Amino acid sequence: MREELLPMLRGAADRTIELVRNVPEEQFELPTPCVAYDVKELINHMEWGASLFESVAGGGGFLPPKEYTGDFRERVERMLDAWESPQAWEGVSEAMGGLPKAVLAHMALTDLVAHGWDLAKATGRDYAAAEETAARLLAFARDMAPMGRRQGAFGDEIVVPDDASTLERFLGVIGRDPAWKP
Predict the structure, then answer these.
(1) C-alpha to C-alpha distance for 9 and 7, rounded to whole angstroms
(2) Which positions make up the signal peptide (predicted)?
């Protein structure tokens, strides 16, 4: 599992870090497809997510959200370093309700790709995920959708066209409209 998913995490992290790095302050108040957040709030949420997934990978506890600090790249790099350890993939995380750590790694990947896409759409840029990553996320999202919706992490499924890409089908399953426009 680790050998397959870790390169996907790194690829998604690289894409999303680049997006975050290139967001000018004048775009911070733009709306995003993640309706609870504007651009700045979304980046803040992504910073927190990276720190949370770093903590649980290392066997740590649940972290409360903090204010925006502008250090997304550094947080993601620490998160990836934590997932490098073979022990990060073993057992369950009591901090996350006893979920297997491999599930949490998939959740970290979901977070990077979905919110990377959110940020790209909000700021008028493109977001691409490797086909293998998108397929992995689509399968994971289909399995986790009922729990994700109960927990408020996923919205209601959006029906996408039959010819939608794998990434767009994944986005639809988690409640994102691939045709979203600001």
Answers:
(1) 5
(2) none
In a domain, 139, yes or no: yes
How does DSSP assign 30-43, residue by residue? -B-SSTT-BHHHHH
Beta bridge partners, 93, equal 99
User: Is 0.90 surpassed by the pTM of this model?
Assistant: yes
- Residue-range definition of the domain harbouring residue 80: 2-173
CATH number for the domain spanning 139: value is 1.20.120.450
What pLDDT digit, counting tens, does each position of 120-168 carry? 999 999 999 999 999 999 999 999 988 888 888 888 999 999 999 999 9
Q: Residue 182 falls within a domain, yes or no?
A: no
The total domain count for the chain is 1
d(CA 54, CA 61): 10
